[in-house]
Design brief:
By secondary structure, this protein is an all-alpha fold. It has one domain. It has eight helices and no strands. Helix 3 runs antiparallel to helix 6 and helix 3 runs parallel beside helix 7. The protein starts with a helix and ends with a helix. About 20% of the residues are buried.
Length: about 150
């Protein structure tokens, strides 16, 4: 998620010299694929479906809640509530860029976004992985369990 987000942001920064969120206004209409990739990355970082970020937050929050119910430890409840509040706050910050990309009008003339086949292929693979891990989270969990069993 992070690598995809920073890779696309780097692509925008080096091509168009974007240095603020408002500079993204309307660029989703000019260069759809990088804008779609950053949309998926930001949705995953927020923890919304259909991305692996949702599964990660679901597993963390459900584990935290079930442990709280067993132990009645107020610290676990506080962590659960703080995590939920942080998730809501992250919605505002992470979705600012996709909102600017697709919903706002272009406010300044922009250069041409440098698209390379390898970069688009990398972004496409990462987007597919984020969506695949939402649909098949057992594949990653099985791999992690095998690694921890060996250790």
């Amino acid at each position: 998620m992070n690598f995809l987000a920073f890779s696309v942001l780097h692509q925008y920064e080096e091509s168009i010299e974007i240095n603020s969120v408002t500079a993204f206004s309307g660029l989703g209409r000019l260069s759809f694929f990088p804008a779609f990739a950053i949309l998926i990355a930001m949705v995953a970082l927020t923890g919304l479906p259909p991305t692996a970020g949702f599964i990660a937050k679901l597993l963390i929050f459900s584990s935290l809640w079930s442990t709280y119910q067993e132990t009645q430890n107020m610290m676990l409840l506080a962590l659960f509530i703080i995590g939920l509040v942080n998730t809501v706050i992250s919605l505002f910050f992470y979705l600012k860029i996709p909102y600017s990309l697709f919903m706002k009008e272009i406010i300044q003339p922009v250069g041409i976004l440098k698209n390379s086949l390898t970069r688009n292929l990398l972004h496409g693979i990462l987007v597919i992985i984020l969506i695949y891990l939402f649909l098949q989270p057992d594949s990653l969990m099985g791999w992690i369990n095998r690694i921890t069993f060996v250790l």
